[in-house]
Amino acid sequence: MSNTATLEAATGDFPMPGAQINPAVKFPTHSFPDFPAATPTVINTDAGVGISLLRVPKKVYLAGAIAGTTYGECNDWREYAAGVLRRWGIDGYSPLRSKQFLASQERMPLVGDRLPGGNVMSSAKGINLRDHNDCLTADAILVNLLGTRVASIGTVMEIAWGFAYRKPSVVVLDENNIHHHPMIHESAGLIVETLDEGLEVIRTLLLP
Questions:
Q1: Are residues 149 and 200 in the same domain?
Q2: Within 13 A of 68's CA, how many CA atoms are on the CB side?
Q3: Per-residue pLDDT reduced to its tens digit, 66-76
Q4: In a shared domain, residues 40 and 70
């Protein structure tokens, strides 16, 4: 077998790192909803063998109060944060994704699977399952608690998950916020006072 080979990104002929290249072997590529396309990068080693790596965007979970807020209060800042992160090549994951039906509600319920347009991801089990998985698989957690005057129990859970799984978290807290508590302070990676400051900290945490 030749020490060189041509990698055709369009057909998915990606060799496994460190493996010999066999033109007859096809390595499948997958496309997932809501993921920006990963960028194949060909690296030439000293032996002249091409290796393709996929640059997968970093993942940031966007935690914050939902129950009892309006749809705009809990969704608008997440849309803003996700847009800023996207410009840096970072994916922001909102717990409100695929839950647009909640926009018709005056206030956000604890669970919404029985509401018109509701789905299983809005059930108690679905909320806990996906939010927990998002914290587990995130590269960092951005927590926005600005303006909250009632304790957000779910958000406190997510801060604790991040601490347990050694995920760097950035918590945005204003003065006199009910979430000022020694255990929150000790579990948070960093505490800042504005959302923009929190986003900048996330950028410097995750990017070169």
A1: yes
A2: 10
A3: 999 999 999 99
A4: no
